[in-house]
Design brief:
α1 runs antiparallel to α3, α3 packs across α12 and α8 packs antiparallel against α9. The chain starts with a helix and ends with a helix. The strands form 3 sheets. Strands 1, 2, 3, 4, 5, 6, 13, 14 and 15 form a 9-stranded mixed sheet that branches. The chain has a 4-stranded antiparallel sheet with strand order 9-11-7-12, with helices on one face. By secondary structure, it is an alpha/beta fold. The chain folds into 2 domains: about 280 residues, 3-Layer(aba) Sandwich (Aminopeptidase), CATH 3.40.630.10; about 110 residues, Alpha-Beta Plaits (2-Layer Sandwich), CATH 3.30.70.360. The longest helix is centred in the last third of the chain and has 19 residues. The site of one manganese (II) ion has 6 residues, from loops. One manganese (II) ion binds next to loops.
């Protein structure tokens, strides 16, 4: 099965026919279909399929001598953001299967296991915390907190993984699996316009996080409630959105309010509550922290005259990730000095880099758009990515 054949199989899964955007949220039917596709691809190649306790999957190509340790792991994720593109995540997984095929065609016999990982809930689109599967694996989130995370329908992570056949009490760091992996190399579509060549290597992931603002006021009638009598949480929320843009400009960061929930969300009702999520990222921790503090302060000042309360909760935060220099240099030497670039996007490779050497390959994105249907990589660049990944895996799996 060629890259393009695999790609074509996955392409319709979870795609909204009207917008072309993908809705593949962890353990929902489209994502389960992607998981089944992954298992089929593993089976078709005779790869051993491992399910870890956290909903992550690994397809293993083991050396003939039965070596199980010192593995080289590649892969990415199958889930998407709401209305996301086709490439963010799946490109890394399809490329990984294609790279294994290429190595086999060339008669390569790896001395170390090569694994293809599919990490659960990378986007955090269902339970709010990005890279949840890799965070659990790496011990970067308290399992008790993860169990209690809820989706938009109020289902807890514990319930959902239980229904998926996992034991919610077994989630958490998997030292056995981590101990078998020597390094992780994730191939990913570039998510901006920074890469002008077909393939590049990541230097760093900038600090980034997610914060939830809860504005609570009083629900009331839109026609009969005079302006002085209102406690309308929509007003400080509106200030907060503008404040995020202004704070980002002052601090040299980026800040986004991309998700909002309004209660009860009626045209003719003053809302009782507004919940808004702030995504903030920037070159340094202090700039990101200052951005959030300034937004919080602006929200509170705006809320006071309307007698609205404001609560701020940090849902996730990832400090700067500087990818392992030795691994990056080795990857670059295999690829012949391709560009090195940082990214403002989060990845499982960033989370795992706290526990093992990790590296990333980026594949050029001519639209520069990501988390939207226009996300793209040209067929020739996809193949360049597969060649690059194959070369890197071949080198790293030699011993
Ligand atoms: C994931 O792609 C993120 O950066 O939010
Ligand atoms: Mn993404
Ligand atoms: Mn991704």
């Amino acid at each position: 099965m060629s890259f393009e054949e695999m790609w074509a199989e996955l392409l319709p899964v979870g795609r909204d026919a009207a917008t072309g955007g993908y809705h593949r949220f962890a353990w929902t039917p489209p994502e389960l279909e992607c998981r089944a596709w992954f298992a089929d691809e593993a089976r078709r190649r005779g790869l051993g399929l491992e399910h870890d306790p956290n909903g992550n999957m690994v397809a293993w190509w083991y050396p003939e001598d039965g070596t199980r340790t010192g593995a080289v792991l590649t892969g990415s994720h199958l889930d998407s953001v709401p209305g996301g593109g086709a490439f963010d995540g799946p490109l890394g997984i399809v490329s990984a299967f294609a790279a294994v095929d290429l190595l086999r065609e060339r008669g390569v016999r790896p001395a170390r296991p090569i694994g293809i990982g599919a990490f659960a809930e990378e986007e955090g689109a269902r339970f709010g915390v990005a890279c949840l599967g890799s965070r659990l694996l790496a011990g970067a989130i308290d399992p008790a907190r993860a169990r209690g995370l809820t989706d938009a329908d109020g289902h807890t992570f514990a319930e959902v993984v239980h229904n998926a056949g996992l034991d919610p009490h077994a989630i958490g760091p998997d030292e056995d699996l981590l101990g078998r992996i020597a390094c992780y190399v994730e191939l990913h579509v570039e998510q901006g316009r920074a890469l002008e060549e077909p393939v590049g290597v990541a230097s760093a992931i900038v600090p980034h996080g997610r914060w939830r603002f809860d504005f609570a006021g009083e629900g009331n009638h839109a026609g009969t409630t005079g302006l002085p009598d209102r406690r309308d949480p929509m007003l400080p929320f509106a200030h907060m959105v503008i404040a995020a843009r202004e704070a980002a400009e002052r601090n040299g960061t980026v800040a986004t309010v991309g998700k909002v929930r309004v209660e009860p969300n009626g045209v003719n009702a003053i809302p009782s509550a507004v919940t808004a999520w702030l995504d903030a990222r920037g070159p340094a921790d202090d700039a990101v922290r200052r951005t959030v503090l300034e937004v919080d302060e602006a929200a509170r000042i705006a809320a006071r005259p309307h007698r609205v309360s404001v609560d701020l909760a940090e849902e996730s935060y990832t400090e700067i990730v500087d990818f392992n220099l030795a691994l990056r240099d080795r990857v670059r030497s295999v690829l012949g000095g391709v560009p090195v670039l940082p990214t403002g996007a989060g990845h499982d490779a960033g989370v795992l880099s706290a526990r093992l050497p990790a590296a990333m390959l980026f594949v050029r994105n001519p639209t520069g758009v990501s988390h939207a249907p226009e996300e793209f990589a040209e067929p020739a660049d996809r193949l360049a990515g597969v060649e690059a990944l194959a070369a890197v895996l071949d080198d790293l799996a030699r011993g």
